[in-house]
């Protein structure tokens, strides 16, 4: 440790972050098995076993929440996850460095916008009262569509927001992986007569395959964790039927109604699904000869 003290010093902020915000709060899962009363305290509250889980699983809203969360998570996995790979591959083929850097900057910038800003922009674009999209539809001879109140459009809007905000940021890891590909492989392939498409299939994609698999496994670990802010800001009375997820349900029942133990059980169930998915996906990856996460 003395020899590598500077490396350990660089690791310290990351380790401290995980200890304070990831491992230490795990003690709170005990609340899921207690009837927590603030005036009795954490240890003084009565143990109730699995009562909160039984209540949640027997609640008619359970399947609605599970369905909504599963659908939105599946949309994100199917439509969002491949896009950073595609953008990274496209940027990797650009030979004009100035254009490449400008393109990277433009696709990175939305990541730094808050979900409040994203929701505001969405409202400006899609509202029926002067929204740009509806004005164009009307100009083309069509009728205005109330995107924000129509539940059929909710999941599409949510997925589109994530794609616009996070696709550019997701390319960073893939571009870093692509930068490590040995240039001599491309030179040898060109000598053998391989074009860009052949190089992509036989050199580029195999080189980043392990990175894709690891990120896919990690993505599955957070499969049902959609984030609270985005969904909450886009919810309204008309689309709540298809938009209410575990995260928003935990907020409305835990923070607003004070059902701390009950919503801790809901959150623990949500995390348990992620744990099962990540362990299963990792085992499948290792069976097929990949490195996996661990």
From TrEMBL:
One of its GO terms (biological process) is transmembrane transport. It is found in: Cell membrane; Membrane. SUPFAM superfamilies: MetI-like. Keywords: Membrane, Transmembrane, Transmembrane helix, Transport. The chain crosses the membrane at residues 7-33, 70-94, 106-126, 200-218, 259-285. GO terms for cellular component: plasma membrane. This is Sugar ABC transporter permease. InterPro entries: MetI-like, MetI-like_sf. Residues 66-281 form the ABC transmembrane type-1 domain. It comes from the Bacteria. The keyword Magnesium does not apply. It holds the Pfam family BPD_transp_1. Belongs to the binding-protein-dependent transport system permease family. The keyword Flavoprotein does not apply. PROSITE patterns: ABC_TM1. It is a multi-pass membrane protein.
């Amino acid at each position: 440790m003395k020899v590598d003290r500077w490396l350990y010093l660089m690791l310290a902020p990351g380790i401290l972050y995980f200890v304070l915000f990831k491992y230490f709060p795990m003690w709170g899962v005990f609340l899921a098995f207690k009837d927590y009363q603030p005036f009795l305290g954490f240890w003084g509250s009565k143990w109730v076993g699995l009562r909160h889980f039984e209540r949640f699983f027997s609640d008619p809203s359970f399947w609605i929440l599970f369905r909504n969360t599963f659908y939105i998570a599946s949309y994100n996995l199917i439509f969002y996850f491949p896009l950073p790979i595609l953008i990274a591959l496209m940027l990797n083929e650009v030979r004009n460095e100035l254009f490449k850097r400008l393109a990277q900057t433009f696709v990175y910038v939305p990541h730094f916008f808050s979900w409040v800003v994203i929701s505001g922009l969405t409202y400006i674009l899609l509202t029926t009262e002067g929204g740009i999209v509806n004005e164009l539809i009307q100009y083309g001879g069509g009728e205005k569509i109330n995107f924000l109140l129509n539940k059929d459009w909710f999941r599409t809007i949510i997925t589109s927001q994530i794609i616009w905000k996070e696709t550019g940021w997701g390319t960073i890891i893939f571009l870093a992986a692509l930068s490590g590909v040995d240039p001599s492989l491309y030179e040898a392939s060109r000598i053998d007569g391989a074009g860009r498409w052949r190089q992509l299939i036989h050199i580029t994609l195999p080189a980043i395959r392990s990175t894709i698999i690891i990120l896919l496994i990690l993505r599955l670990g957070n499969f049902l964790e959609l984030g609270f802010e985005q969904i909450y800001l886009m919810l309204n009375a008309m689309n709540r039927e298809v938009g209410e997820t575990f995260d928003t349900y935990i907020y409305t029942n835990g923070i607003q109604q004070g059902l701390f133990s009950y919503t801790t059980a809901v959150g623990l169930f949500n995390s348990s699904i992620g744990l099962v998915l990540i362990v299963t996906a990792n085992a499948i990856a290792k069976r097929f000869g990949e490195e996996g996460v661990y």
